[in-house]
């Protein structure tokens, strides 16, 4: 079932959509701005500006009037202002959009309530037009609040130049206090709110509110506009068009109702442009032009068209189940993007190439490279592989041994990535060729750093992929520190140039007409507020060659402290 904005009004109330009105139409109230400010979806004339107004009186139930302002600096006179209402139907969140700004400029913004309370300041940069010398992005993904501190956002906030933050999904996680990663959260005092798994609109709102109260999250949002897409955990783990691995209808109700609640909370709490009338909420694929330099196209690979995953029912599958999963995986009708979105993407890539832009960037949730699971016996010999398996925690060893059997039978490393949908990937690669583009693909989801040269089934190069690790979310490398998983994957796969399955951080991507430079920035820790950061690898990608070349970080890298 598609949920469009018009039919959704029955779920969220007719007053939910933002409408700019005079301050006299809303009740004045004592308020706080507990969740900071955020901006997103920049244009050449503005951006979406967001805040959440928290009434001091928790029982307050009337709309609250606010004013918003945009200026060239924090102490300058506003050059564009307006009025808005924080409505209970939107959980007292506000989204507005200035439309009279200049392209390629930095701006400061803030909100004010009728009682005089002022929000923190935020910054954003409008999209450039015409000749553009460069663009700088922070590429992020996967931020489990219970998994550790958001030190990467503090790092991003302290950078001199960030034009936009590209967020590739898993902004929140749905698990409760007894779920994924919460053994760390219990030690750090970062227990999920609510304590149970998120199922209802109230649950998802509370979870978003917890994330937005984090001081480092607020600092990141205040630094630059976010360009976001969701992945699976904004609804539930391994979600697809008809359900999710972490949704059990018998005990958790109707999937469509849960999905609608999750999407409503997302649109309320994120600085993203609301869906237009006639478009389904799931269709958050959209594009951004950075002058004559680049086109960024954000795709949706979860709720719009994704077929059900080819997954095992247990942790130690037998040969028959492995064969059945392989047969499902290889079906030609399985989708990730869907035909309308693929056609939209091909058209956008074609137009960008025709306009002479050197870069087409694809903001995509899951790893696109073909990544075979490492057959340790093949890589190291039977005896050494046996010894490496014996060194693992006994609770993990049976699962790893079962995975090894699957890899030998032809299973990829991750069935939830594009590797689980090879026919859909070939259709996408055909669109790349048809458009004349060899795009730069950005990927999240995996909680690992990647640099991959992508090729189609015929071995023809089609694109280059930079995969960003998690802000905090644990990885397979964390669970099995005795195994050098990243190195094993690079050795086992021609498409994988580099993989780090342990580091947490982000990619700092700088584009010029001549090259793309991707710096992989790792935090020294996510378990303490004090941290250092270092560049663990860097890649230069020539605009005309599109061949990633690994440049390792210095053996004695300089570090910068974060507080």
From TrEMBL:
EC id: 3.1.3.1
Domain Phospholipase D N-terminal residues, every copy: 35-126
One Pfam family cited in the UniProt record for this chain: PhoD
Gene Ontology molecular function, alphabetical: alkaline phosphatase activity
Top-rank taxon, per record: Bacteria
The entry's keywords: Hydrolase, Signal
Protein name, as recorded: Alkaline phosphatase D
Organism for this UniProt entry: Sphingobium xenophagum
